[in-house]
Each structure stands twice: as C-alpha cells, then as structure tokens.
Design goal:
The complex is a heterodimer of chains A (about 160) and B (about 425). Chain A is α/β, with parallel strands linked by helices. Chain A is built from 4 helices and 5 strands, in the order E-H-E-H-E-E-H-E-H. In chain A, helix 1 links the parallel strand 1 and strand 2. The chains are: A alpha/beta (about 160), B alpha+beta (about 425).
C-alpha cells in the first residue's frame, strides 16, 4: 500500500515573500491522488497542522523563512530528526507557529514518520508587498525537488 | 539621584519578532525603582484592508476581510455581512440563515478559546515557558485542547466549506446550506467537546491566580434573546446603550507614536474593555443554564474583575458555545434558499459582532452599484489596547522587586489575559531583555 502523503504550503499570500510556500503548493497540485496524496494550502496557525497531517505517513511542509541568508536561498530541514533551528518559546499571545506545531506533535507522539520542511529565505514580508524576484526564482527549484522526493516516496524508495 | 551617581534604569522589552520586525512589542521602563513608562506596540492589519476594500464590490467584503485574521475569519465575515445588509436595508434576525451564522461563529469561538485556554494561557499558570514544555509533562491537558479545537474546526469546515478562511458565507446568507443529516455529524464531537468544556471550567477554577482587581468600563453587545455573539446593541456597565449605527460617533481613534495601531477611546469616557470579561459581567444572565451553573459551581460568581481569571471565563464560554451549537443543530431545518437576495443601494451600513477576543465593528459606505466608497474596521485589540496598558502599569507597579525574567513573564501573562491579536501574520519569535 503506498504511503499516505501530505504536501502542505504555508504562508500568507498578501505578504510578499510569505506567499512562497503557497505558490510551491499550487504548482504541485497535480501530485494529488485521491485517497493517498493531498496537496494543501494552509494559512492558519501552527497547531492546526496536527489535524491537517493526521493519518499521514510522510509530510512535506513548504514555507518562507526569515533567517540570516540572502533572499532566494533554499533550505531543507528533516524535522523528524531534530527541531527546526528557531525559537519555540511560546510567548505569543495569540497564534502558534509552524515550529510550535512540530514540537507539540513530537511531545505528544503525533509526528508523521517522515516530515520535511523546505524553506525559501525571503526579504519582503510587508502587507501588500509583491513577492521578491529572488524568491520567485527559487519557487520552481523547490517544486522540482519536492516533486522528485514525493515521487520517490511513492515508489517506495525513500 | 541626590548623590550624583547615575540613575538606575531598567528596560524590559519583549519583541514579537518574526517575518516583519516590530509587529508587536512591549516596552517597560523603570528608573530608580519607579515605573516610568509602559507601552504596548501592536501591528494592525485592518488599516491596509480598509484601503484595499475601497473600490471593490460590496459582495467581496466578507472574503477580503476574512484574511485579516487566521484565527477569527468568521468574526470579520459576520461583521462585514451584517454591515452590508444594514447598508442595503436587509435584516436577517431570525430563521435558519441566522442560526447557521451563529453555529459557525460558535465553531470559531470553540477553536479560538480552546487554543487560548489550553495551549497559550495554561502554561502560565502551570509554570511552563510554553505549551510544548507543558505537553511533555501534561499530555492530557494538551490533548484536551486539541480535541476541543478540532471540534470547532469541524463545525467551521462543515458550515464554512473549509477550516481556514471559510468560503461559504456571503452577504444575505450562505452559498450553500447544509442538510440536516450533515449537521448531524457534528453532534457527537460537540457533545464530547461540551463534556471536556465542563471539566475545563472545574480545572481552570483551581489554577493559582495572582490577585488583581481591574475595573475599566466594560463594553459588549446585548442580545435580548441570548448570550451576545452575532448582533445586538452596544452597552456598558456604566450606562452606555447605543445601536451599532451610533458606534462611530461615540468612539474616537487616536494615533499614538509608539504603535501602528490606533487606540480607541469612547468619547468623553475613560478606558474601556471588550471581550470575555465584559461579556460575562454584562450578560451572565443570558448564559445557557448549563454554562451558568458550571460557572457558579466552580465558584466564579456572576461578576469577575480579575483578568487573570479570564481563563475560567473563556472555559465557561466554551460550555456556552458547545451547548448552544448543539441546540441550534437540534432545531435546524434548512432554509428554502440559503441566502436572501441583497440589492445594493447608496448608503452606509454598520455591523458589530463579538469576536472571541471582543467587539468587532465594521462600517461601509457603498454606492448604488455596490462599489465600496469607504471602509472602517475597529478590531477588539485596538479597543482594548489602553486597558491592557493600564493593566501592565498595575502589574509592573505592584511587582517592581521582581527580577527582569519574572517581571517580563508576569507582563506577558497580563497581556495574554486579554488574548490580543498581535501575531496573526508571524511564524516565530525571539525574545530579548535589555538592561541599561
């Protein structure tokens, strides 16, 4: 039986580079196979991810990053092996983050067997800003890589 | 200082940094052991959306404003549709369309309150930095929160078409009304959520609460037929009693240097507070009997002036939300048509509803073709900001002896009491404390 796969694009389409993950997911929509592969766009808070990936064997998360690298740099994290390198101290008064969702799932034993996050470093996150050229150019590269990884997982070679 | 030595200055700052710096931050300045300044800076997306809405068709307002917040899109949609219906002379105050609106709105309250009670607020009282640490040692508390949150999400997904930014609401009603049997699938998860909510009230009431008495003017909607959520006059505990149409004549928004947000103040009156504490104190008698009894059994009383106890009030509101949602489902008969036709006309409309965190007001001016001429959105957080700052002053002033770390944590807890909408658009945060 093929693994149950979720590909989840994260972000906010009205905030420039923050829409990168959603754009990647949109480009990967053709991967969807009813019953075992779902491709979703998710604009909610981090803890909501736990219900979104419930029952999945393998999950790819696609997101924008705000780190110290130049815009357009692509980073891959094996979130199943170790926590994302960001602060998860939850002093937020309102919402929760992707890293929070992953760590809560780890604490409760609800992490999918395989969970990978692809992030694109961004630089323009203001409300109403357009996506930067560097991030736009990185999107098709992530699309190709994730498509190959998902296809390999479905073929049982992961 | 009189001996000429430099003054001792402590600055405590919490930055909610993420994708855009400075979206929300707290700044506390203490000089020579005296509190000098407390400021809360909040990023406020509605200003951008007000501009975005101008020139758009009135039917687009609910879907555009839903994107202001990933936690409370239904609040934005419901205030928007009520304002547009008001502008067009249409009133939907009874029948299955209104019932469906209340049902999906309760779903949002369940989702938002359970996230706040279990994962954001509980760690403060149990002595954890965050919910991940708490979940490692108290997995059942975290699982309860997730179970309740899922019940709320299920209501929103079924009635709204999807969980995040539901797409089924429109001016005049819904694009599609669910069948009775579809709503029937919500009964079992909501019954379980109601049981969990009752247990939550009992548990929350036993938490250790810092002593605090706050008495800002409390403002909430008043609905003669039930606990306020989707409609009503705007009333206060100090005699305010106005229709939503009069709200923008009574509220003054002031720009302050340290915040992107406009601070709302009621003209000629002092600081006011909206949200769970205001609703509870003003509408205790309107709670469903099950919720009222749960509150009394837990020793809460009919009034609550300690914002740290808002976790208990939210738990009582979870009982209210689940119980009323189940009653709406039991009585539901689908409408003949899922929406009322709303023809645009030249005019102004107002809509006020109770978002989980407080009163949310929309005002639109549209032309005869339905084009939006102007939009004004006053979210609960900008209304509560002055009251939160006042709270912080009291908290800091009463605990100046605490070391920075503990004082900062207490301040964060005081902010969290009011569940302000600070970080909708942010994904992670870093914290810093600076000493000068």
């Amino acid at each position: 039986m093929p693994p149950r796969v979720r590909v989840i694009g994260l972000g906010n389409p009205l905030r420039g580079d923050d829409g990168a993950g959603l754009l990647v997911a949109q480009e990967l929509a053709g991967l969807a196979r009813p019953g075992h592969v779902a491709v979703e766009a998710y604009e909610g808070e981090g803890v909501g991810l736990l219900s979104l990936w419930e029952g999945a064997d393998a999950v790819w998360l696609l997101d924008a990053l705000h780190g110290d690298g130049p815009a357009g740099v692509i980073r891959r994290f094996d979130a199943g092996a170790r926590p994302l390198p960001v602060s998860t101290r939850s002093a937020s008064t309102h919402a929760t983050t992707v890293a929070d969702g992953i760590e809560l799932a780890r604490a409760l034993g609800r992490l999918p067997r395989r969970i990978v996050l692809y992030g694109i470093e961004g630089e323009a996150f203001g409300t109403g800003e357009p996506m930067s050229v560097a991030v736009r150019e990185a999107v098709p590269k992530v699309v190709r890589t994730v498509r190959a990884e998902v296809s390999a997982a479905l073929a049982g070679s992961c | 200082m009189s001996d000429g030595s430099p003054s001792l200055r402590r600055t405590i700052r919490t930055d909610y940094l993420a994708r855009v710096e400075g979206e929300g931050a707290m700044f506390v300045e203490i000089v020579d052991g005296e509190l000098r300044d407390v400021r809360l800076r909040i990023y406020e997306p509605p200003r951008f959306f007000e501009a975005l809405l101008r020139g758009r068709h009135f039917s687009e307002a609910p879907d555009i404003t839903a994107r202001i917040c990933g936690i409370c899109p239904i609040a934005y949609q419901t205030s928007a549709v009520r304002a547009m219906e008001d502008a067009c002379g249409v009133s939907i105050d009874s029948g299955p369309i209104r019932d469906l609106r209340r049902l999906i709105y309760w779903g949002e309250w369940i989702e938002s309150h359970s996230l706040h009670v279990y994962l954001l607020h509980a760690p403060d009282f149990l002595g954890y930095d965050g919910f991940v640490e708490m979940a490692r040692e108290h997995p059942r508390i975290a699982e309860s929160g997730l179970q309740m949150k899922k019940a709320g999400n299920t209501v929103m997904a079924l009635v709204g078409g999807r969980e995040i930014h539901p797409v089924n609401l429109r001016v005049g009603g819904f694009y599609r009304a669910p069948a009775r049997r579809e709503l029937g699938t919500l009964v079992e998860p909501l019954q379980r959520a109601r049981e969990t909510a009752l247990a939550t009230v009992r548990w929350a009431a036993t938490l250790p609460f810092p002593e605090a008495v706050r008495e800002p003017e409390l403002v909430a909607l008043a609905d003669p037929e039930g606990y306020p959520i989707d409609r009503g006059r705007i009333v206060s505990d100090r005699g305010l009693d106005i229709a939503p149409q009069a709200f923008d004549q009574h509220v003054v928004e002031e720009h302050v240097e340290h915040s992107n947000a406009l601070h709302a103040r009621l003209r000629g009156r002092d600081t006011y507070l909206t949200g769970p504490l205001a609703r509870y104190n003003l509408a205790f008698d309107q709670l469903r009997p099950l919720a009222r009894e749960a509150a009394l059994d837990a020793g809460l009383g009919a009034t609550c002036t300690n914002p740290f106890q808002s976790i208990v009030v939210r738990s009582v509101e979870l009982v209210q939300a689940c119980d009323d949602a189940l009653a709406l489902i039991a009585a539901y008969e689908p409408p003949e048509r899922p929406y009322v036709e709303v023809e645009p006309r030249d005019g102004v409309g107002h809509g006020a509803t109770e978002a989980p965190r407080g009163l949310l007001y929309h005002r639109y001016e549209i032309d005869a073709q339905g084009k939006i001429r102007s939009a004004r959105i006053i979210p609960p957080t900008s209304q509560n900001q002055l009251a939160i700052e006042q709270d912080l002053r009291e908290v800091v002033g009463g605990h100046l002896e605490l070391p920075d770390d503990q004082l900062r944590h207490l301040c964060e807890q005081a902010i969290r009491n009011h569940d302000p909408c600070i970080s909708c658009a942010t994904h992670f945060l870093e914290l810093t404390v600076e000493r000068h």
